[in-house]
Amino acid sequence: MCRYQCRTRFTARLRSSGDSSSLARSAAYTRNGAVVMGVGDRIGSIEVGKFADFVALDRDVLTCPVDDIRDGRAVLTVLGGEVVWDVR
User: Fold this and answer.
1) How far from each other are the two terminal CA atoms of the chain, in whole angstroms?
2) Which of 12, 22, 63, 71 is the most buried (most CB within 10 A)?
3) Which InterPro entries does the entry link to (predicted)?
4) The pTM is what?
C-alpha cells in the first residue's frame, strides 16, 4: 500500500525540491518515517550496517501501471536478515 501512495501522492517537500520521481518518493517515505521515529541511524534506507526488512514483489512497482500496484504479490520476504517467505 505504501508504494501505491508513493506513486499517487506528492508531498510539499518533494514538490519544493523539484524531485517527484517514484524512486525519490519511495526513499522519502521510508527514510522520513525512520527519522521521525528517531531510528534513522539504523533503518529507513538501504546502507551497509542498517537493518533491512523488505518484500520483493512480482512486479516493478516503480514502473508498472499505478492501478496494478495493489494486485502485486510477495515472492520473497526478509525480516531481520532472515528469509521468512519465499515462493520458490
Assistant:
1) 24
2) 22
3) Amidohydro_3, Metal-dep_hydrolase_composite
4) 0.60
CA 19 – CA 11 distance, rounded (Å): 10
Phi, psi of 85 (to 5 degrees): -150, 130
* pLDDT by 10s per residue, the chain, length 88: 455 555 565 555 555 555 557 677 777 778 888 999 999 999 888 788 888 788 999 999 888 888 898 899 999 999 887 899 999 8
**Residue boundaries of the structural domains of the chain:** 2-86
What Cα–Cα distance (Å) separates residue 71 from each residue in 33, 58, 66, 76?
24, 9, 10, 16
CA distance 1 to 88: 24
As a residue count, the chain comes to 88
